[in-house]
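Posted in: Protein Modeling Q&A

I'm a second-year student putting together a small comparison for a lab meeting, and my supervisor asked me to include a predicted structure for Peroxisomal biogenesis factor 11. I've never done this before, so apologies if this is the wrong subforum. The sequence is pasted below exactly as I got it from our records. If anyone can share the structure token output, I'd also love a short note on what stands out.
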Amino acid sequence: MPEKEADVLDKTVTFLAKRDGIDKVLKITRYVSKLLLATSYKDSKSETAVRLKDFESSIGVSRKAYRLGKFLADINSLRKSNAAPHLYWLEIIANGGEGCYYFLEQLTWLIKAGMLDKRYQHRVSKLSAWSEMLGYMGNIILSSLFIRASMAREQALQLDLDTRKKHDEECLPEESVLRAQLLQLRSKRIMKSLALVQDLSDSTLALNDITDGQGMLAHPVWLATAGLISAAISVHKNWPG
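Accepted answer (user: helix_wrangler)
Welcome! Here is the predicted structure, written out as tokens:
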């Protein structure tokens, strides 16, 4: 019998079998809770509000546990990078900052779990936030450069296709290849654009941690919305094709 095509349940099982899948579901749940606390339960001291606050806090600790060893992926990415020399330093900033962030998050988890002295918590949290911001800045620049280069390449391919059509050239095999390349470039650019939006959203949260909630973008509703935007994009990126 032919193999049955994967349905929503199959894809959900595959998604939740991954560490990133669980992490993103927890991220959505956490920022939905934050949004409720900033709107429906704002200034509320009801039992529901207290429980929701405790629930949101526990999810934050749980997500840090899921990042155990995740910094190794950034080290591996740098080790296997084949980027051009003028872009490699940006990859060092992006992957290095993200790797330091994930490593420090392990220490934060151990502090919150009671294994390390809590007097180090503020210092580690600050270093973690700065490392996170550094990684986002590197990724934002890399994504912007990729999008610009992709748009230029897409325009060149589209011009080639329009020229062939204008002159009624019978080059169907070549035209088919050019159209496939154009679609592939557009797909990659869209995903890179989503990654850019995600990094901008997450950098807002990191900036809030750096400034201890004193910045211009520190409104709880905006922060919760930024977290939800980032989480939704992460789910889209990690969802089985």
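A couple of things worth pointing out for your meeting: Residues 1-66+211-241 form one domain. Residues 204 and 217 are 7 Å apart (CA to CA).
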